[in-house]
Design brief:
Elements (H helix, E strand, L loop, with lengths): L1 H34 L7 H23 L7 H5 L2 H36 L10 H5 L1 H26 L1
Helix pairs in contact: 1-2, 2-6, 4-6
C-alpha cells in the first residue's frame, strides 16, 4: 500500500497548495476592494472552484483516514463477524453511491467539454473543472474501501 500512501501525500500537498492560493487571492481581492487600490474580478470564481476541488479531493483524504461520519457505537455492541458484515454493507453502499455520482459527474463533464463551455471570468473549460467530481469520488471509494478492509483485518487480528 506504499503506492496509495505516496499518492495520498501528493494529494494532501495539492490540497494545501490550493487552499493557500485560495486564501491569498481572497485576501488580496478583499484588501484591494476595501482600499480601492485594485480589484480582482475573477477572485470569487477562483475561490469557488478551489473550494469545490478541495471538497471532492478532500473527501478522498477523509476516507483514507476514516474521518467520515460514522456511528462508533456499532462496533462496540456487536461481535466481530456482525461488525464485518456491517462494514461490508457500508463499503458497498458508499462505493455504489460514489460510482453513481461519478458517472453523473462524468456525463456533465463530457457534455461541457463537447460543447466547449468556458467559465465566465477565468475562461477555463468547464468540463475540466467538473472532472473533479468523478475523480474525487472514485478516489474516495478506493480509499474508503482500503480503510475499511484494513479495519476488518485489524479486528480479525485481535
Amino acid at each position: 500500500m506504499k503506492v496509495l500512501d505516496g499518492f495520498k501525500k501528493i494529494i494532501e500537498a495539492i490540497v494545501v497548495v490550493i487552499f493557500i492560493a485560495m486564501v491569498i487571492v481572497i485576501f488580496l481581492a478583499t484588501f484591494g476592494r476595501y482600499t480601492g487600490v485594485f480589484s480582482i474580478p475573477w477572485s470569487e470564481e477562483f475561490a469557488r472552484y478551489c473550494m469545490v476541488t478541495m471538497v471532492y479531493i478532500g473527501s478522498m483524504l477523509a476516507a483514507a483516514r476514516g474521518a467520515h461520519f460514522c456511528v462508533e457505537l456499532v462496533p462496540m455492541l456487536f461481535p466481530k463477524k456482525v461488525v464485518n458484515v456491517i462494514y461490508c454493507i457500508n463499503i458497498l453502499a458508499v462505493c455504489l453511491f460514489s460510482l453513481f455520482i461519478a458517472k453523473q459527474g462524468w456525463g456533465i463533464s463530457s457534455k461541457m467539454l463537447s460543447q466547449g463551455k468556458l467559465s465566465p471570468m477565468l475562461e477555463l473549460p468547464l468540463g475540466v473543472v467538473y472532472l473533479v467530481i468523478p475523480i474525487g469520488l472514485i478516489l474516495m471509494a478506493i480509499y474508503y474501501t482500503v480503510f475499511y478492509v484494513g479495519k476488518m483485518k485489524e479486528k480479525e487480528d485481535k
